[in-house]
Amino acid sequence: MILAAFICFSGISISSFAQTDSLLPAREMTVRAGLPNFYKKLKAGKPVKIAFLGGSITRAGNGYRDQLLKSIREQNPSNTITEIMAAVSGTGSDFGACRVDDHVIRHHPDLLFVEFAVNDNKMLMKLVRETMEGIVRKTWKANAATDICFIYTFSSENLSTLQKGLFPPSVSAMEAVAGHYGIPSIHMGLTVVDEISKGRMLIMGKKDETDSRPLFSYDGVHPLPETGHRVYTSVLLKNLGRLATSGKAGKHRLRIPLEAKNWSDAGMLSLGKNVQFSGHWATTDSVTKGKEYYSLLPQVYVTNDTNAVIIATFNGTRFGMADIMGPGTAAVEITIDNQPPKIIDRFDAFSTYYRLNFFIIPGLSPGKHTAKIRLVKGRLNKAGILKTRNNNIKDWSPYKNEVLYAGALLY
């Protein structure tokens, strides 16, 4: 039986689970220290800022994010409620830890929702703990009064694990961080899992090709606004109502780190003054202006010259780049110090449109490094790649280009 209605009010740390990869029991909500600072301001009629850091499920228009904000504003008409929208489709907590300063913290949120459970599915549990802990520590170092809530979604890949009453690996890892720091967590999908298990909802299907049962999604991942997202919203509202009376307002305490290599030192640097450019580069907003991610990465540098290089000197144990992927992109070569170059494809089966993306190379030795970034052409069979998703391309001309759109450095 799915534990969809089980609520845990324990404030006991579960940090004892931190160094294991055990799957934890599935619970809809765990209160821990609650969200007392946010609700104190809200009940006093003061302006509040709510931030959403996550992936495409959070990004979705008319999804749980829009529905939740609409409900909170209706319930609190005297408050000015400002949204900080920091969701980037197809990205996880590793990119989240790098960009949380720029995309969230500098806007001074009162409440931060963090949603990366599905996009972290393929990450090692230890890495999930490190990246999520980085987000927490960076947020509270900047403002110890900011309340944080971890929220979890699910996909068809997690269904069987949740039906056994267990959280999948990514959520179990996040729960270790939440328990260590007293952060409340809400799994928005357990009610859906219960409905699917009882045959009252379909997890996926094609539009107008299913029976009378409601359809959660078309793809087993992204909920439909009128079904899956509505359930997510109702679960959130129900449990936020319980959190509204929990905990004691005050500054959150940064405990001894759960993971010694947590990503509290991660970050994102704009190009320009932070790097050296060699060869032909130009600034452009042609693939950012008017896009959903424009406010997050308004300007990029572009080149179609394989001899053009970006040279970056940095201190740290990881290196990466935020960039734009789409029909006209190709591959990139990264050379760090005297190591053999790494070639990373910047085109995939989803590259029928331009989108903000990233890559990170971890595991560098501590200390100072020099990285060189260069465009690679002639490597990709774009038609073959797109065929894997049965993409029906009518105009192939945009795909003939092979360029690099560099946006920001990640460390």
UniProtKB/TrEMBL annotation:
UniProt KW Signal keyword: yes
Entry keyword set: Signal
Protein name, entry field: Lysophospholipase L1
Signal sequence range: 1-18
UniProt GO molecular function: hydrolase activity, acting on ester bonds
Species annotation: Niabella drilacis (strain DSM 25811 / CCM 8410 / CCUG 62505 / LMG 26954 / E90)
